[in-house]
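Researcher: We're teaching a course module on how sequence relates to structure. For the next exercise, students receive a sequence and then see the predicted structure as tokens, so they can try to spot secondary structure elements on their own. Here is the exercise chain.
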Amino acid sequence: MPTVLCAASNWPGRSALANVQVDAVPSQWEDSSPMAKSITRCASIAGIAFVLLALSANSVLAWGDTAHRIICEIAFKELNPQARDEVKRLIRLDPVFFTFSGSCIWPDHPRKRSREHFVNLPRSATQLGNDPCPLADKCLVTAIEVDLEIVADTGAHDASKLDALKFLGHWVGDIHQPMHVSFKDDRGGNRIKEAGPCSRNLHAVWDGCIVLTKLGSHSVDWHRSQNMGR
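Model: And here is the predicted structure for the students to work with:
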């Protein structure tokens, strides 16, 4: 059983994830470097925690910029000291972002590698099978594999590792958004119309509307009040 690489920080809901941590990274990714495994494991835990915390609060948070920042901030704080120092070293090289959590929105502004933000499954699917992208040649699952390999490569240039790090934090957030692991025929909920406070489509409900409706506009600025990523 692999060693848990997340630091023992105390954020709400951690105890509920005690049995999730060890298996948070798929076995095919276990050959990566400790820092890469730590980032992926902790971001996976953060994504699960985000769902659990939202449900325990009788509301569901969305996966727009705010959710990506929250997930990556939780992941950053859960890293062991060695991995956290490496993340900070790489982020200091970025000309735009000053924090890891802030950098996790980079793949969306503007949209980069657009075909890799989701994975489409057949309607009959009950889980991801041996083919990570059953309806395409690349998808969110293979994107995680590609960027995890770059982050883990000790011979990779820092510029490549920095980009891969920003993608990796974003991807692991995306894969925990239900509409990003969905169906091609309704375009991940984009063709399912919603009425009421979130009168757009189901995908937009998850991506932005709920966090504003349930938590208020102040939640969008939550990250600004934190000493995030440093």
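Model: If you want an answer key for the exercise: Residues 1-30, 48-62, 222-230 have pLDDT under 50 and may be disordered. The longest helix spans residues 34-56.
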